[in-house]
Amino acid sequence: MKRHSRASGWQRKARKPLMGVATVAALYGLHRRVFGIKQRPSWPPGADAVTSEGAEAATQKLAARGGTRPHYAALDFAWSTAATIEPWVEGVNFFPRIFADVEAARSSVHILMFGWKDGEMGGQVTSLLERKLSEGVEVRVIVDAIGSRPYGASRAMFTRLAAAGAQIVVNDMLPPDRDGLFPDEQRIDWRMDEIGRADHRKLYVIDGAITWTGGAGIEDHFQNGEFHDVMVRVTGNVVRQAQAAFLTSFRGHDGPLPADLSGLFPEPADAGSTPVALAQVIPGGFVAASQAIRHQIGEAHERLDVMNPYFTDPDTIELILAAARRGVKVRVVVSEKSNNSQASAALKHRYADFVAAGVEVWELPNTVVHAKVVVADDVASFGTVNLDAWALYRNSEIMMMARSAELAALLVERLFEPDITASKRGEVPAGTRARLASWLGNKLAFYL
Predict the structure, then answer these.
(1) Residues 229, 375, 267, CA angle at the centre, nearest 5°?
(2) Contact in structure between 384 and 215 (CB atoms under 8 Å)
(3) Quick one: DSSP state of residue 162?
(4) Residue 396 gets which letter from DSSP?
(5) What are the pLDDT digits (tens) for 232-284?
(6) 171 has which bridge partners?
(7) CATH code linked to domain 289-447
(8) Per-domain boundaries in the chain
(9) How many CB atoms lie within 10 A of CB 187?
(10) DSSP per-residue codes, 58-90
(11) How much is the pTM?
């Protein structure tokens, strides 16, 4: 017995280093999964990219595929066309128009939303959707657990909506990873393939004929002016691709799709003629939206206007500096006081480089700049993509890019000129404390 006891003690001591190694390996793996940057060539669209005409077939193919995974939504979309592209600045302008389109829905309302909180705006949308469900309109919803709190503060609101007949699925950035319809048909997905990955997209697709996208969640601070944002209403051929983006994501979270999808992909009354591309970031290395924005910045010849709240990616900053150095007039609009002080400090560390290259940096006071818009000559992009590592590589994001002098002029008129007029010039950090904060923020940019 004594010899056995000594052997057991030795074994326990031997196991301790092994357990330590296993712990370190697990933490390293978790760090790589959550903070890693992975990308593969995703832009421009390839010869076999999904066209608007092929969007229904691509969705049907995925629906027939065995199993469900969020990364199945990584569709390479071909350039398409839009009939109308209307940007609206501030919630007081875009919320009533979005609500009017939902009110007029006759067949389906699909909402993909990072932040949908139980408040005045959240309650209005929920009540409106309950009414549409009572009229026989199909409602499908994707929300992010971190952004919308469906298991916490907003649980009662989403449970009420589900009870009215809406089909709701949730992206779970934090464990446990639950797939299937919220709240009663969810099951644990032991693959945990959503962990560490937020779904930051904001997208409405109404009757398969109208889509809205931009940076605003269904939250009160977008309505009352605390957050400054843009939502863009789009019609035409590209809406069928937006529908495919939604439905493949819905199916990826184990949401059920009807056997016949044709009613969700109506042929548009006006396909439009404005060239437009829909691009996404889907975790796993598909970064079409990120690469499209970089290409847009790199192709600027005369002017480049950039508005973004979280501006820390060094590669993107270098592209903007290169544009200014080759003679492009570059204007960058950010918050005077951001809701992410670390990201703001990281950007300020590059102010000296901006000034030296001739970039105009403008800081808008009294609100949090949350819009994600780039105008490069006559090409305009808009959507949910922040210029940080989370949006560019790690989270699910969506954007559209249009070749349209009219849209570019409209964004400058409605967004950039009024904001720059109301802004002050950004100044290089002065004083030891400010310089240290900006230096440290820059060093941590990979994590911001």
Answers:
(1) 80
(2) yes
(3) H
(4) B
(5) 999 999 999 999 999 999 999 999 999 999 999 999 999 999 999 999 999 98
(6) 144
(7) 3.30.870.10
(8) 55-272, 289-447
(9) 11
(10) HHHHHHTSSS--GGGG---BPPEEESEEEEEES
(11) 0.92
Identify the three-state secondary structure at position 128. Answer: helix
CA–CA separation, 349 vs 428, rounded Å?
8
Give which of 267, 257, 216 is closest to 373, Cα–Cα.
Answer: 216
Cβ atoms of 278 and 77 closer than 8 Å? yes
β-pair type (84-89, 167-171): unpaired
Segment holding 213, helix H or strand E: strand 210-214
- Closest to 433 measured CA to CA, from 352, 350, 345: 345
25 class by beta-carbon count within 10 Å (0-12 exposed, 13-18 middle, 19+ buried): exposed
Q: What are the Cα distances from residue 383, in Å, to 128, 239, 261?
A: 24, 14, 26
Between CA 306 and CA 76 the distance in angstroms is: 25
Residues 322, 327: Cα–Cα separation, whole Å: 9
Q: Which residues contact 349 (CB under 8 A, 6 or more apart)?
A: 429, 438, 439, 441, 442
Q: Tell me which CATH code domain 55-272 carries.
A: 3.30.870.10
Amino acid type, 198: A
